[in-house]
From TrEMBL:
It comes from the Eukaryota. GO terms for biological process: phenylpropanoid biosynthetic process. This is Dirigent protein. InterPro entries: Allene_oxi_cyc_Dirigent, Dirigent. It is found in: Secreted, Extracellular space, Apoplast. Pfam families: Dirigent. Residues 1-30 form the signal peptide. Dirigent proteins impart stereoselectivity on the phenoxy radical-coupling reaction, yielding optically active lignans from two molecules of coniferyl alcohol in the biosynthesis of lignans, flavonolignans, and alkaloids and thus plays a central role in plant secondary metabolism. The keyword Signal applies. The lineage of its organism: Eukaryota, Viridiplantae, Streptophyta, Embryophyta, Marchantiophyta. GO terms for cellular component: apoplast.
Length: 183
């Protein structure tokens, strides 16, 4: 009886060890950095501006700002210098809420082959309080490539660095987490 129980325990142990080995085999090569600083270069001078109002609300349902959608298409560069290498884009939308306190943002960072992350993306959603002058913190909600299934926070200061109106640098510091099934 005792021998039988022992053999069952041994069998269980073998099964468990096999499952752990299987899980180790299933680990996928992914998982980028835990911290990433991105420099989004903005231009505020028409016709080359990189933030434009692109859809106005219809009808007489709202005041003039509520419902306005702006499209952003900034250039990601390796550093804050205007001539540093282009490593991708920050493309997305800003939606104006019912008052200046409530704005919705959604954008994707696209990192091209010139970046050290190959062709990868990071998706961000968030809320902007239009009058709060502290750091803006947005949610990192996913990604692809090196950033597959990433989550975390994207923090940027209220004030961008304005070299001149055609060279505005928004610094984004991302703290990133990867699911445990990635190394
Ligand atoms: C807009 O961009 C074009 C192409 O890069 C450039 O030739 C032009 O000088 C820019 N215009 C302004 C106002 O900066
Ligand atoms: C919109 O509706 C309000 C309330 O009915 C009215 O007072 C206002 O004149 C309207 N505005 C326009 C631009 O039609
Ligand atoms: C990026 O580089 C890889 C490897 O050289 C290549 O296979 C891929 O086509 C490139 N992608 C783009 C969008 O340039």
């Amino acid at each position: 009886m005792a021998a039988l129980r022992m053999s069952r325990e041994l069998t269980m142990l073998v099964v468990m060890v096999s499952m752990v080995q299987l899980l180790l085999c299933l680990q996928v090569e992914a998982g980028g950095p835990k911290k990433l600083v991105l420099y989004a270069h903005e231009n505020r001078v028409p016709p080359n501006n990189t933030l434009i109002g692109s859809a106005a609300p219809n009808g007489n349902l709202t005041d003039e700002k509520f419902g306005l959608i702006k499209t952003v298409s900034n250039t990601l560069r390796a550093g804050p210098e205007a001539d540093s290498e282009e490593i991708g884009a920050q493309v997305g939308i800003v939606v104006l809420g019912k008052d200046v306190l409530n704005l919705y943002i959604s954008y994707t960072y696209y990192l091209n082959n010139a970046s050290e992350y190959g062709v990868s993306t990071i998706a961000v959603h968030g809320h902007i309080d239009g009058v709060y002058e502290g750091n803006r913190v947005f949610a990192v909600v996913g990604g692809t490539g090196k950033f597959a299934s990433v989550t975390g926070e994207d923090t940027s200061p209220f004030d961008a660095v304005v070299l001149d109106e055609s060279r505005v640098v928004n610094t984004h510091t991302l703290t990133l987490r990867y699911p445990p099934y990635y190394k």
